Amino acid sequence: MKAIVYTTVGNRDVLRMVDRPVPQPGPGEVRVRVAISGVNATDWKCRRFGHADGRLMFPEVIPHHDGSGVIDAVGPGVPAGRVGQRVWLWESAWRRAHGTAAEFVVLPSRQAVELPPGASLELGASIGLPALAAHRCLTSAQHAPARLGPGTLAGRTVLVAGGAGAVGHAAVQLATWCGASVIATVGAPEKEKLARAAGAGHVVNHRSGGTAAEIRAIAPAGVDLVVEVAPSANLGLDLEVLAPGGTVAAYGTEGDGEVRLPTRLLMGRNLRYQFVLALTLSPEEKDAAVADVAAAVADGALGVGEGAGLPLHRYPLHRTGDAHDAVEGGTTGKVLIDIG
What we know:
Elements: E1 2-5, E2 16-19, E3 29-39, H1 41-49, E4 66-74, E5 86-89, E6 104-108, E7 112-114, H2 121-126, H3 128-138, E8 157-161, H4 166-177, E9 181-186, H5 189-198, E10 202-205, H6 211-218, E11 223-228, H7 235-241, E12 242-250, H8 263-269, E13 272-275, H9 283-298, E14 312-316, H10 320-328, E15 334-338
Parallel strand pairs: 8-9, 8-11, 9-10, 11-12, 12-13, 14-15
Antiparallel strand pairs: 1-2, 3-4, 3-6, 3-15, 4-5, 5-7
Helix pairs in contact: 3-4, 3-9, 6-7
């Protein structure tokens, strides 16, 4: 099979396309013929900086956690009826050497989730890490539901910073599905259109000035939850617009940014900061998130493409380096690699 690999940390030139044997599924595993591989920021960061102490966990790494395809073989203990299922994949490369940047991938059966008939493979490859991170953000507020579904966030106001990004897009769609009032902030007029297409009821351009006042005009009592991509840069804004008892769920790092919190203010208003990394959630949290996201997909609540607020940028397998550069460069939308 064709696969993209790297054996040392570094820039895009460490990526190579090679031929490797088709892997065989073991107990509890499925093999998926990959159609599309989804690229996330963590993929180029792991390639450039390594997994731990600047090193790789394995002698050779096939990157990418997310993807979609069709199950073509199952291992012992997995029902034979799974063969032929169209599936979306999550965390394929988490603490494993073999991700989705290859024609085939083997992974535990639970990490290959069946796609309903109306869901495209493009959607399947775009779900994974962004949707799981968004799920954790939306369930991290004080008195928030542990599970998401229609009506579970009714009566709550959610502010999504960077509503046109991959996680922001998923947060807007999931929060809307759950009945929340959703405000998204963006930095450009074209991104306003994308956030509205994703389902945000209100969109504020944070470069136009008066952002806090605009948000307060929409939500006079304040927002209950901020899904935050830039906790350092947006600290002041978030504290201005949060309702008493509100929460900031931060999933972005801004490089080596630090958040200096005014403790007296936070204590006086009973505010909360929750930092989110989907990869290190517990197995139980991940399974709950996957189940809720799958339910949203089945309900038609998640979508991709320009009309759904998430433009798709597609590359062939041999241009994986270009795809990594696109994500690192902040391309608006979802970067996908066509494999099948």
